[in-house]
């Protein structure tokens, strides 16, 4: 529903083209969300996931094929998504969210400007930085590098609660 008159029938599509979306978790639900966002023409999509593609993923996760087995999910997802719509800037990183500060840092810093070089299968993943003692649990920020967080990660168990607090602090819809 429009809250005001449109100046052009393309206003909604142009706003979508300018949108910056952070997607955490590119497996089942996240894979379908990523496909829909890229096919719809979202401007920038940054994908984050720590896992590798396993055989048990193939029957329910749309971005992966048998040839992707053992590869980081982000690497395989980026290739599939970029092939779907080359007009969308799709970036990603292999990262695990272990603490609310990890998510806050990710939301604040944003994605690289250019598509990053995919990490090779078997390359160790850099662990998230530990939060120093005395640092607030959620670093408050009035700015976010994104317009929307799509949270499709299934772990850690508290990630939805963390996302709610971090996104409220950053004034970021999720």
Structure description:
- With 174 residues, this protein is of the alpha/beta class.
- It has one domain: Rossmann fold, CATH 3.40.50.720.
- The chain is 32% helix and 11% strand.
- The chain has helices at residues 11-18, 28-40, 73-84, 100-109, 159-170; strands at 20-24, 44-48, 89-93, 148-151.
- The protein has a four-stranded parallel β-sheet, with helices on both faces.
- Helix 2 (28-40) packs parallel to helix 3 (73-84).
- Mean pLDDT is 86; it is low at 114-142.
What would you call the structural class? alpha/beta
Q: Which strand-content bin applies to the residues?
A: 5-15%
Strand order of the largest sheet: 3-2-1-4
Q: How many structural units, i.e. domains?
A: 1
How many β-strand runs? Answer: 4
Q: CATH H level: which superfamily?
A: NAD(P)-binding Rossmann-like Domain
Pick out the low-confidence regions: 114-142
Main sheet record: 4 strands, parallel
Termini distance? 19 Å
CATH fold description: Rossmann fold
CATH class: Alpha Beta
Structural key phrases:
4-stranded parallel sheet, 4 strands, alpha/beta
Mind sketching the topology for me?
Blueprint: H1 11-18, E1 20-24, H2 28-40, E2 44-48, H3 73-84, E3 89-93, H4 100-109, E4 148-151, H5 159-170
Parallel strand pairs: 1-2, 1-4, 2-3
Helix pairs in contact: 2-3, 4-5
């Amino acid at each position: 529903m429009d809250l005001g008159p449109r100046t052009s029938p393309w206003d909604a599509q142009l706003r979508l083209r300018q949108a910056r979306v952070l997607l955490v978790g590119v497996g089942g639900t996240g894979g379908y969300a990523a496909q829909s966002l890229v096919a719809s023409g979202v401007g920038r999509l940054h994908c984050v996931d720590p896992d590798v593609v396993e055989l048990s993923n193939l029957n329910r996760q749309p971005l992966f094929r048998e040839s992707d087995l053992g590869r980081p999910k982000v690497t395989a997802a980026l290739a599939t998504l970029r092939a779907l719509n080359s007009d969308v800037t799709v970036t990603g990183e292999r990262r695990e969210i272990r603490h609310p500060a990890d998510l806050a840092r990710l939301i604040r810093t944003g994605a690289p400007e250019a598509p990053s070089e995919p990490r090779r299968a078997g390359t160790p993943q850099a662990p998230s930085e530990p939060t120093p003692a005395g640092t607030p649990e959620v670093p408050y920020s009035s700015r976010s590098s994104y317009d929307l967080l799509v949270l499709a990660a299934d772990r850690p168990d508290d990630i939805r609660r963390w996302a709610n607090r971090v996104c409220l602090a950053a004034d970021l819809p999720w």
